[in-house]
TrEMBL record:
Gene designation per UniProt: priA
Organism listed in the record: Robiginitalea marina
Functional description taken from the UniProt entry: Initiates the restart of stalled replication forks, which reloads the replicative helicase on sites other than the origin of replication. Recognizes and binds to abandoned replication forks and remodels them to uncover a helicase loading site. Promotes assembly of the primosome at these replication forks.
Upper classification of the organism: Bacteria, Pseudomonadati, Bacteroidota, Flavobacteriia, Flavobacteriales
Protein name per its UniProtKB record: Replication restart protein PriA
Residues making up the signal peptide according to the UniProt record: none
Cofactor note (record): Binds 2 zinc ions per subunit.
Binding of Zn(2+) 1, residues: 525, 528, 565, 568
Amino acid sequence: MEYFIEVLLPIPLERNFTYSVTPGQFGILQPGMRVAIPFGKAKLYTGLVVSLHHSPPVAYEAREVYQVLDETPLVGELQLRLWKWIASYYMCTLGEVFRTAVPGAFLLESETRVVRNPDVAEDGDSLTEEEALVMEALEHQGVLKVSQISELTDRKNVLPLLHRLLRKGAIDLQEALREDYQPKKARFVRLHPTYESDPALERLLESLTRAPKQTQVILQLFQLQQGRDKPVRSREMEDRAGTSRSVIRAMIDKGILQEYELQQDRISYGGPAETGEPAALNEEQEEALASVRQAFGQGKPVLLHGVTSSGKTEVYHHLIRECLDRGKQVLYLVPEIALTAQLTHRLQALFGARVAVFHSRQSQQERAELWQHVQRGGEKAAVILGARSALFLPFARLGLVIVDEEHENSYKQFDPAPRYHARDAAIMLASMAGAPVVLGSATPSVETYYNAQKGKFGYARMQRRFGGVLLPEIELVDLSQAYRKKQMKGHFSQRLREGISLALQEGRQVILFQNRRGYAPVVECLSCGHSPGCPHCDVTLTFHQGLQQLRCHYCGYHRALEARCQACGNATLDTKGFGTEQVEEELKELFPGATSARMDLDTTRGKYAFERIIEQFEAREVDILVGTQMVTKGLDFGNVGLVGIMNADSLLNFPHFRAHERCFQLLTQVAGRAGRTAPRGKVLIQTYNPHHQILKQVSTGDYQGMFGEQLYEREQFRYPPVVRLIKITLRHREWGRVEEGASWFAKSLRMLFDREVLGPEFPPVARIRNQYHKQILLKIPPGQSLPKTKNSIKRIEQSFDAISRFRSIRVIYNVDYI
Ligand code: ADP
Ligand code: ZN
């Protein structure tokens, strides 16, 4: 008898490949285990066994596997089922899901690039001779491909050797992001050690009876220290004590207090010990929790619709506690890595070392370790907090799924395939695992609210902020009037400048939101009107002042800013529009006494960059935080008195059926960062359209109004949630080819789906990285079978591919395009 296995490769192939194995291997192999296999001429891949059988392949001679890599399956049955659902629902191959789902450290292949791990000190003794040889080669060469290491060691089976080195932490994969910032020192304050004993302290307090300010400072210090094992920053102390810096300085000079420095990122938070119980809920929160439980009982996903700062996170804490008590695991999804920093601290304070974070900025090895913890289902990773890819972890006993900020677009992966929606995939995962799901938001997506209205989802509502704190007061500032009356300084209206001054005077912080990064999105010649564009994409280049560069935000192309216009040669280049960098620059001029920080893609590339900015802001070392959308998403700062939106118009005028929904969500969310705990916060929105309906709805917090209007429009113009959408994009280097191919494709679709086909159309940016794009939108009305529709599309694609001049055109599907 012959022995074969079906192997899934982590590449976009329509089919699995059959390999032959020895009877011995056949005896130990199970689906979900990895094997090292040859592929093509000289390639080495890590593949996944999907089944075992005895029938040789018909079209080709089965090759032998090099090696079995696992003793137990790496991927369980539940994961495979989820992968299959994702591949079929989102119209991609299983191999693409495999590649996305599994950490790179598990998928070594001939092209993988390996480097020495710079964080680990050399410990040559623990290495075998062969391992040491690889390390030495890496030292000389810097980077080596797996195929090169294979030659070097003269071994086909180099993967186990590399896995050992990965486990020992000696090597890493090159794509892993490096920690690229210099640790910053921060100042902290504590009572001088001589007063640590109770009698000494008593004597000190007695001696200070006639110095009430100093006594006050000591009491404040104790208060700050209470219930946390985090050191107290000097800055925090100055703010809270309500006393001037000079009093604290004097006490330091007298030796009562001591100031010291710590490296900021080395501060430890909440020890590994389990420390607390979730906070007692108020009445509204209790009611919401009861509704959530009720929906769980009915087996429905439930929408927790609570205004910003109503305590959704506190409600989750109770659900998590119950789930852990049942010995099960929690998946807690957030849309943005930035959010994990704050939430980790909150969760660790309650659940200690059971909390683990998973996201794409971790090294491949860290991710691989977490994978194994989750699979074992032990204590260590019982609560997984992560961005969208965390849903691929091999949960041993999933008991609860939380999707926080469920309305966020970043839950949908755009590129590459699988173009999945993490919220929807998480709902599917939960239903496969028999676990309940809660979706949380202050501004639910129209489709989720629609599902709740139709009774498909459960619904729980919280209308009030915790602790009787009022929602911020929102004021619209008319920019055209401000310009007419000459009240602008840079991009700041007088109203906004006053607002900032007032907040700063009151010792409160400010967040400013601008939807673009860089200094200015357009550079234009005043003489001839020429604007430098990207040579590879159809966009203008953004000016970055700090770098003195023009950069393309689509492909990364950049060059130094030229002194003269490249078209007419005059030195008359000027900028148009503005980004976060310019806002920060103007701030420095307008408020020289205030410290500011910027949070956008440019300032958050390093591994701990988010954490650093958030910590500085929390510790009030920064007065004003300027940022892009990153500042809108669920951050919880206690001391923000004012949120300013520099310009709301680009959000309003965005050409997309969701533009108004998104504008409402974004502005409501960023507004929600104001006055979360302290006195009522204030929001100023600068706009040329102060009478726009959406802005009114934002300023009155009228979610229902927004929903009703949007739903009406979606019904009129037939967009989700009334129909489903599949976006089909065709891509090729030649404009004419895309043009012709797209017309052909659209015509074929129309023969079947008639009026439900929109386009083809060039998107606003039609060329990216020298590839032209053209899009077709297909609407799928309720009642029309989704699987059948997809099959028809696939058949059209087959005929398309049969036409030789179309064969090189890439066809990309985006199911549930958002
Ligand atoms: P949301 O997630 O809805 O934005 P949070 O859960 O972050 O709201 O709550 C806002 C603030 O109020 C947080 O600082 C939180 O600790 C506090 N808070 C909310 N509910 C309670 C409660 N029941 N007991 C104590 N503090 C609470
Ligand atoms: Zn470009």
